[in-house]
Amino acid sequence: MIDLNAIPSPCFVLEEKLLRKNLELIRSVAEDSEVEIIVAFKGFAMWSAFPIVREYFKGATASSLSEAKLCHEEMKSLAHTYAPAYESSEFTEIMEHSSHITFNSLSQFERFAPQVKRSERRISVGLRINPEYSEVETELYNPCAPGSRLGVVAEQLPIQLPKEIEGLHFHTLCESDSEDLAKTLAAVEEKFHRYLPHLKWLNMGGGHLMTRKGYDVKRLIKLLKNFKVKYPQLHIIMEPGSAFAWETGFLRAKVLDLVENKGIKTAMLNVSFAAHMPDCLEMPYQPRIRNASLTPIAGKPTYRMGGNSCLSGDYIGYWSFDEELKIGDSIIFEDMIHYTMVKTTFFNGVKHPSIGIIRADGEFEYIRQFGYEDYKNKLS
Question: What local confidence, expressed as pLDDT, does residue 137 receive?
Answer without folding.
Answer: 84
